[in-house]
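Minutes, project check-in
Item: structure for the 245-residue chain
Input as provided by the requester:
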Amino acid sequence: MSVQNTEQTAQSMNNNYVICLKWGDKYSPDYVNRLHSMVQRNLTLPYEFICFTENATGIDNNIRIEPLPKLSTQGWWFKPYFLGNDLPIKDGQLLFFDLDVVIFNNIDKLFNYNQDKFCIIRDFNRSFRRTWDRMNSSVFKMPIGKYHWLWEDFKNNTKRFTNKNRGDQDMMYRHITDHVFWPDEWIQSYKWEMRNRSDLQLVNGKRNFKNTSDPIIHKDTSVAVFHGEPNPADCNDPWVKSHWG
């Protein structure tokens, strides 16, 4: 690689984007605004925060809004869009967060980790099976446009992909074979790894913790993921209330 190309690569990697997806009404605009605030508190590198959505009502005016592509699908199935280079951002790194996360420690390391790779969570079933190697797409990072071929295939054959895969992360697992996993300690399941899962029960028809408690936090953990129930807004643990938002 020439010196010029090396400098161009380094410059593009300095363009850091934190992005999220809001579609429909499963999550309120408050989730976007709180995610934005948590990133502001815990990321010291230069970055731009972008929310991709079909409805920006209620989202803070300081947040950059971009439209979602026209697809015959919904929800998490918009995530393959972020694999390609049809995005309104062209160079650098893209760090994606689901809305149901709590960021509570510095996340600079997520941008600095394996900058040329697709980085993703090792699925939280790892807490039941130590050798589990599937993906959880609540947090992933990649050089922008790295898998444009996969996005092109998806947008032209959306029904085939959605019929064949249970979700976006199953599609990623099948087709992205050069990925690396984040260190397990960096991003943890709140209900399975940070809290006592035996406290989970049905509360008013929703799965939640029957007692409030402080989580067990590994010294290297920066992000707690609330996959399934409860969501951060429904969790009464004082720790969650003090860190979410």
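Outcome recorded: The chain is about 25% helix and 20% strand.
No further action items on this chain.
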